[in-house]
Amino acid sequence: MTAPTRPTPFGLVFREIARERFPAIAEALARDGLSSADRDQFVLLEPVGRLLREILPEDSPPEALEAHVRLLHHAYRHWAAGGWVYRIGPAALERALAGGPIGSHLAHQALYLRLPELRVWGTPTASEPPEPLDGMFVTETARPGEIAVLAIFGLRPDRPGFSAVGVEGHADEADPSGSEIEVLAAREDGGPAFGPLLEGGREAGIHSLANPGELLLLTTRLLPSLPPPPPGDGGRGKGEGYTELERIVEVPD
């Protein structure tokens, strides 16, 4: 494990919030006997509602509330699981983009997949220019075998925030070819998944995400490449309320 070379979205946005506010959420979950995997129950917790009211303007539209709920839920799950960040190497990313087995089993209840810089791009907002994909928060949901993914785009030092796109689904374990996912990843033009959409992208070795299905497909191709959790961890992190912020794991090429 080594120190990260660039800030993670969790460290950038939630470092102080996690230390100061997440323990109260953990206490509320324990008191009520609830699992944080259920986002609908999570958002009804009093400490969660109070925090959302503080960070959201009163006149925020419903879509803004939904976006903040998704981000806060992923951030809390990431913290509660032990803050595992898997730094994907260039060769490991290329193998996942080219094909290979898929899976939706997580070594921890939540984690963050950090991609090499500027290698994968997408358009989180249809009316805005493409942005580079920093990585993906991935967490188990309340449905067995299902994962929730929150992709983080446009993370850079000169920008106060970032863009995020969420999708939920799972790999089809009954598919003998190991190539099926729950969310459609086919492109309208019939082009290959992850094919570059930026001008000059092919020559530069850049790939693109054209739809949420491709995001889920890339995630489920990366998950099987992750090393197992260290002995004694059991894959469950440290449980609700673990306070170490993040641990970096290199995924070898």
What does this structure look like?
It is built from 7 helices and 8 strands. It has 2 domains: 9-83 and 238-246, no CATH class; 84-225, no CATH class. Strands 1, 2, 3, 4, 5, 6, 7 and 8 form an 8-stranded mixed beta sheet that branches. The chain is globular. A hairpin with a 6-residue loop joins strand 4 and strand 5 (147-153). Helix 1 (9-32) runs antiparallel to helix 3 and helix 1 packs across helix 4. The protein is 32% helix and 17% strand. With 253 residues, the protein is α/β, with parallel strands linked by helices.
Question: Summary?
Answer:
By secondary structure, the chain is an alpha/beta fold. It has helices spanning 9-32, 39-42, 46-55, 62-80, 90-98, 201-204, 212-222, and strands at residues 84-88, 110-114, 120-122, 131-140, 147-153, 163-169, 207-208, 247-251. Strands 1, 2, 3, 4, 5, 6, 7 and 8 form an 8-stranded mixed sheet that branches.
Write the layout of secondary structure elements.
Layout: H1 9-32, H2 39-42, H3 46-55, H4 62-80, E1 84-88, H5 90-98, E2 110-114, E3 120-122, E4 131-140, E5 147-153, E6 163-169, H6 201-204, E7 207-208, H7 212-222, E8 247-251
Parallel strand pairs: 1-2, 1-8, 3-7
Antiparallel strand pairs: 2-4, 3-4, 4-5, 5-6
Notable traits:
single chain; 253 residues; alpha/beta; 2 domains; 8-stranded mixed sheet; 8 strands; 17% strand
